[in-house]
């Protein structure tokens, strides 16, 4: 197994980033990740206003997958996500869906033990998921806080252990990087943070040659999903639905209208988050509805 330590990170998904490691297709890789604040918030007294915003949303990596070339796809199986013993979440004026109503900044540090998060007086079973995971884009660099066709800060709570994410290879080696794990996050991530934590993310990375989805695609044992992004929810929904429709046409002998009608009857559009520089939505179809 290969381990990428958390001191090897990037703030931008960029074809010019120097790989920190090379790995053969099929390798199992452990990405040790920082939280999205890079550990700067340690107690409830530490406020977002006091931290260095140059150190936000680090992603561990990037890893160069040998033989990966533009036009291929990386298949990333999420094997496990082990979270740290503390997480942090914040409310900050003008951040998030209701940020205009937040009068003062607040930080809550959450302890995590045996799969449970202790938030105030309550206990919540954790559901660890990956916020940031992506490859280098073909064009200019994209900050790790921004999602796009290359992946990035999708904040999709279905990117969790047991799921498989497909990402486009835009440059030689793909340049995979992972960060921003959440112990818990709701669809929407309305205040701008989930329960943010450092983690160890174990993945198996395989290479699918000469086949590319033009967007992140996700599967688990029950469902297939396309993850769309956009400046508006409408645009993100259009991209997500079009991506799933294209995939369906490639799999089955529907014509466009037949696939469109099936998705209207059976596909769900779910908000991943609407607080990042681009919003993300996933289009979800149950495998049992594909004949
Ligand atoms: Ca995030
Ligand atoms: Ca986050």
Detailed description of the structure:
The protein is built from two helices and 23 strands. With 291 residues, the chain is mostly beta strands. It folds into two domains: 2-213, Sandwich (Jelly Rolls); 218-289, Endonuclease I-creI (Roll). Strand 22 (268-273) and strand 23 (279-286) form a beta hairpin. The mean pLDDT is 97. One calcium ion binds at residues 36, 131, 180, 182, 193-194, 196.
- Percent of residues in helices comes to 10-25%
Category by helix and strand content:
mainly beta
Task: Provide the gyration radius in Å.
Answer: 18 Å
CATH class of the largest domain: Mainly Beta
Give the tally of structural domains: 2
What percentage of the residues does DSSP assign to strands (E)?
A: 35-45%
* Average residue pLDDT: 97
How many helices does DSSP assign? 2
Per CATH, the superfamily of the largest domain is Acetamidase/Formamidase-like domains
Biggest β-sheet strands, sense, barrel: 9 strands, mixed
Ligand set: calcium ion
CATH architecture identity of the largest domain: Sandwich
- What is the name of the CATH topology of the largest domain? Jelly Rolls
Strand order of the largest sheet: 1-5-19-7-16-20-21-23-22
- Low-pLDDT residue spans: none
């Amino acid at each position: 197994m290969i381990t990428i330590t958390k001191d090897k990170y990037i703030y931008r998904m960029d074809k010019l980033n120097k790989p920190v490691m090379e790995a053969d297709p099929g390798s199992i890789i452990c990405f040790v990740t920082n939280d999205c604040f890079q550990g700067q918030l340690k107690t409830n007294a530490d406020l977002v206003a006091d931290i260095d915003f140059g150190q936000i949303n680090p992603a561990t990596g990037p890893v160069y997958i040998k033989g990966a070339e533009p036009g291929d796809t990386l298949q990333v199986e999420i094997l496990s996500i082990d979270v740290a013993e503390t997480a942090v979440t914040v409310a900050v004026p003008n951040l998030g869906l209701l940020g205009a109503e937040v009068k003062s900044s607040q930080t809550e540090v959450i302890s995590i033990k045996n799969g449970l998060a202790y938030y105030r007086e309550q206990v919540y079973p954790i559901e660890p998921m990956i916020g940031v995971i992506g490859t280098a884009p073909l064009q200019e660099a994209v900050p790790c806080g921004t999602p796009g066709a290359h992946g990035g800060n999708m904040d999709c709570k279905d990117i969790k252990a047991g799921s498989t994410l497909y990402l486009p290879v835009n440059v030689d080696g793909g340049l995979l990087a992972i960060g921003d794990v959440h112990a818990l996050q709701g669809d929407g991530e309305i205040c701008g943070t989930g329960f943010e934590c450092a983690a160890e993310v174990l993945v198996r990375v395989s290479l699918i040659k000469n086949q590319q989805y033009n967007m992140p695609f996700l599967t688990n044992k029950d469902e297939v999903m396309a993850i769309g992004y956009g400046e508006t929810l409408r645009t993100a929904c259009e991209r997500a639905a079009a991506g799933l429709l294209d995939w369906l046409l490639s799999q089955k002998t529907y014509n466009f209208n037949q696939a469109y009608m099936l998705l209207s009857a059976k596909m769900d559009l779910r908000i991943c988050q609407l607080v990042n520089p681009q919003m993300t939505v996933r289009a979800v179809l149950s495998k049992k509805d594909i004949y």
